[in-house]
Automatic annotation (TrEMBL):
Pfam families: PAN_1, PAN_3. It comes from Helobdella robusta. InterPro entries: PAN-3_domain, Pan_app. Residues 17-93 form the Apple domain. This is Apple domain-containing protein.
Length: 203
């Protein structure tokens, strides 16, 4: 894999979004052909429905990730497993960090020709745009109901097109942030908070 060097340096921040539990695993994860912890966790970050990773040193490859959204990956579903380290990700935390790093914000301005969508909170509005392949512009206008406006067709984004507007805040997404170039470093992984769990079922 080739990773953007600037993003690689930034992404130690993602360490705060993970919780690590030694010698435990979740039943029902899917094996992925990845051999390092860093790339295994990165794979999960880049898969929007993934919240759990198991890294099992006894299996080849050792990387197991959540691919089924119906699977319950809460801490109460962990089972003891000596060769496995379980990682749980707070996806809301990841999203907030991406918003912080990736959006250019201009207060009291708007971008013309956006489409209104039914989201009432700015976090939901930005998340919706993030998940649409053609969306890189958002307006959040507190004077409209709902206040969320997004790009729904492809067009060249020009900052010169932003116009003053008394009740709107404009957000423009850095296109590079949607590319799968996130990677966690070993130093970041070693700083994950560790859950101490006792009395769980041996599997």
């Amino acid at each position: 894999m080739n990773y953007n060097k600037e993003l690689l340096q930034q992404n130690d921040e993602y360490a705060e979004c993970w919780t690590k539990t030694d010698e435990h695993k979740i039943i029902g994860l899917s094996k992925v052909s990845i051999n390092t912890t860093e790339e295994c966790l990165t794979y999960c970050i880049e898969s929007k429905d993934c919240k759990a990773v198991d890294f099992d040193t006894k299996t080849v490859p050792p990387c197991w990730v959540q691919t089924d959204t119906r699977l319950n990956v809460a801490k109460s579903y962990l089972h003891k497993a000596k060769t496995v380290t379980d990682y749980y990700i707070n996806r809301q935390c990841i999203h907030k960090l991406k918003i912080h790093d990736c959006w250019s914000v201009t207060n009291m301005h708007h971008y013309p020709d956006l489409e209104k969508v039914t989201f009432l909170e700015i976090e939901s509005c930005l998340k919706y745009c993030w998940e649409q392949s053609k969306c890189f512009v958002v307006d959040f206008d507190e004077n409209t109901e709902p206040p969320c406006w997004v790009q729904n067709i492809s067009f060249d984004i020009r900052k010169s097109a932003i116009k003053p507007h008394p009740t709107a805040t404009n957000y423009i997404l850095d296109k590079n942030c949607k590319l799968p170039k996130i990677k966690l470093t070993k130093s970041a992984i070693s700083s994950f908070p560790v859950d101490q769990i006792n009395g769980l079922v041996e599997y």
